[in-house]
Amino acid sequence: MTPTLTVENLSVAYEVTDRGGVWPSQRRVTALHPLSFEIAPGETLGLVGESGSGKTTAGRAILRRVDVAGGCILFQGADITRASGSRLRRLRAEMQLILQDPFTSLNPRMRIADLVGEPLTVHGRAGTRAELRGRVASLLERVGLPADSAERFPHAFSGGQLQRVGIARALALNPRLIVADEPVSALDVSVRAQVVNLMQDIQREEGLSYLFIAHDLAIVRQISHRVAILYAGRLVEIAGREAIYGRPRHPYTVALLDAVPVPDPPAQRLRQRTAPLAAPPDMGAAMQGCAYAARCPRATERCRAEEPPLAEIAPGHKTACWHPV
Amino acid sequence: MADSAARQAPSRRSRNGTRLRAFAAELGEDVPGLIGFLVLVGIVAMAIFAPLLAPHDPAAQSVLARLAPPAWLPRGNPAHLLGTDALGRDVLSRIIWGARATLLVGVAVVLLSGTFGVIVGLVAGYVGGRTDSILMRLVDIQVSFPGILLILLIVSIVGPSLTTIVVVLALTNWMIYARIVRGTVMSVRAAPYVEAAEIVGCGPARIILRHILPNLVSPLLTVAILEFTNVVLAEAAISFLGLGVQPPATSWGLDVASGRDYVYVAWWLVTFPGLAIAITVLSINLFANWVRVTTDPREREKRFGWSKTARRLAGRS
Amino acid sequence: MTGEPLLSVADLRVVFPTRAGIVRAVNDVSLAVSPGETLGIVGESGSGKSVTAQAVLGLLPLPGRVVGGEILWRGKPFQAHGAGVRGKEIACIFQDPMQSLNPLMTIGAQLVETLRHHARLGRRAARDRAAELLAEVALSAPARRLDQYPHELSGGILQRVMLAMALACEPRLIIADEPTTALDVTIQAEILALLSRLQRERGLAILLITHDLGIVAGLCHRVAVMYAGRIVETGEVDALFARPAHPYTQGLLRATPTLEAQSERLVSIPGAPPALLVPPAGCPFRTRCPIAARPCETLPDPARTETGMVVCWRAGEAAWADIPR
Fold first, then answer.
1. Which residues cross the membrane (chain B) (predicted)?
2. B contact test, residue of C27, C226, C231, C277 with most B CBs within 10 A
3. Chain A contacts of C189, Cβ < 8 Å?
4. What is the rounded distance in angstroms from the CA atom of residue C288 to the CA atom of residue B1?
5. ipTM of this complex > 0.90?
6. Which domains does chain C have, with CATH numbers?
7. What structural domains does chain B harbor?
């Protein structure tokens, strides 16, 4: 079966203007080092990383929202790296995005009906007014919102409800892939579970794929089939869920997992006592070798000199480390 | 949450069928807005029906009746309710007729310069990059060029007329709109909901019209009202220099300007046309404020009692 | 914990009179923090947890007003202690350190200013003490940090600076309002470990406000769970996590995803927290509670539990379908 999404050596670089000197000078900063992965139909890949890890950039590059510096993106087998114009527009219908903050990602001046119906309208799939209204109503029902929501404005809703509107909007065009960028991290704990469950139900029924970008490993575990860990713009480990959580191999993955606070007092007290206290080193300097070497307890001379390649160390389990755990 | 939302959501019927009635009902809720609206309607009607309303010919001079004070004062002439000017012309009639030129120039200039400035600002802010730099330098140049000089130049070449005034004032007043619009567009462009709209497949035209432009309503209304006053006064200055409204036609601005010399002997010459300008601007202000609130669902919510503060507190401990 | 509490709050009520009506943000909240103790207040947005802290600090945003109850510091109201108690003996750290720091002053200048004002130190002595404090919050190269501006430092480092600033006045109590919410997981773990160490070493009392049960589990001795402006349950941390009595606490614990294998679906609490403008009569959780019954239409009196209290007619009953966690 063709994967929904194949990413091969995708990299992103930004031109940064330094205004420190007399004349501004251009500098090229690599935000994302060559990254490769696949997402099968009906599969969720969790993309985990901390701020500055490049996880958001990766999601935007796949949606062709930022310029790709190298590599290619295959969507349902077709190369879309250079797609533009009307082809890109058609592709956009198949790949949708759910944003983090539901309060700012919906136009406050539009009614829910117009927001959910907008994708259909702009792609010329709205049909008659009655058809559009019917379609919007069924989308709202699909995400568990009352039918009378349609005529209201966003400010009348809670965060969880607005995120449901965001999901309904993303679903309107029957996409095959949804990039969800931290979709629940702005929500309350009790509401998070509702949205995660909804996303899982929709996936089961529609067979669509998710790229679930998050920093919260516990939520990622709940929804993902496979998980990829990014550090400083590099893919450091990718494996099935059970492998990542049961037997992480990269020292950074281990550190991330150890850092998650768990709601179990004796266990959490123990974790807290073993957490590293040393401050992270300055990251600005140009790095040679493994990006994580400066923070890594297992780092050796080799790590500081040579960048480890992403290698398969078990079936379906790849990591970029000279000394895997 | 459910009942509160239902309370403020207008029903479907009011949205489609009886829009006018809904408009009237909503305007009725806001007394200052309603007053502003009614006064404006009155002023416009006065300008349109000037020939029927004016008791005298505004240009008819009478040396005998010159500088007569308003009718209720001693020496006042009941035939001239608001008095007469230095040439014995009836002030009330001149105000009624002057509304035509004043409103025409004010509204036309604000619309023309506003439209032009908004387009420039939208393009500069939305496209960005080099286009933005070029357009904004153009604005800078125009701003730094003395406006009155340009006006004198153009008018002396083309010759004075109402059309010339409108074009010339529009040419010297569009920059402020461009700057304000560009700034707002740039900040709104970065809003997540604009990115969301782009992802959904909205083209640039729709993004600009549906998602960005509505955010401009309130700052633009504020600026346009301020500009309206400026334009009325600028028109007065130009007319006073003899390059604008040509006698025997008149405008409020011209009346104020030419009455200035008699401030100490005949205060009514500046006061009544001035009052006319003030009342017009005030009622536009009141009405525009209502428009601003009505076009913003969040502002509406505030107005109709469901306070934003309350929700912010409920939403974030 | 025995002995006289440092801070005790009894029947606190805070309202926000607005155009729309009176928002009852905090209702009948009572709590006490003893020396050397960490009390956690857990709740979702709108639960009143931050408003409670603001009321204690005297920093209620307008138009908020305390309309009932009392706040005692070492047995006496604040007024009886004279000015300066709130800044000196009680220190606070907030979610966003950037908001509490002056962007135009170096870290050192701000620390020195605090030290000179509160500890009445000379210029040299204050600078030395500032460097010491930065070392105490485990910052590398403290002397160099003193000359840096806030924008040059990352969020994690700034939060350490805030902590150093809080410690500068030798406080007895630190009020920490979501101190790690804006930070990455690994940085959060470091700050939590630091807080826990400082507390042990200095015998500090901490009032920790958070939405994250994992953080409470590791750091707190006692917990108060807030919902819709009321405390619904209190207890010692181990007992409360092991045997939550209130249906809301039970739901919150189960809705929190963990790193261990569990069921495919999270337990989710339906609906959203009520608007405080029109709170439901009786138990505020009634509308979302799976075991709500007739008596819940009135508010029950607090009942004693093993180690604290609970406000529920059906306390201790299993509210949510039995899903192993």
1. 34-54, 103-127, 147-172, 216-245, 265-288
2. C277
3. 258-259, 261, 271-272, 275-276
4. 13
5. no
6. 35-59+84-89+172-257+267-324 (3.40.50.300), 101-170 (no CATH)
7. 32-308 (1.10.3720.10)
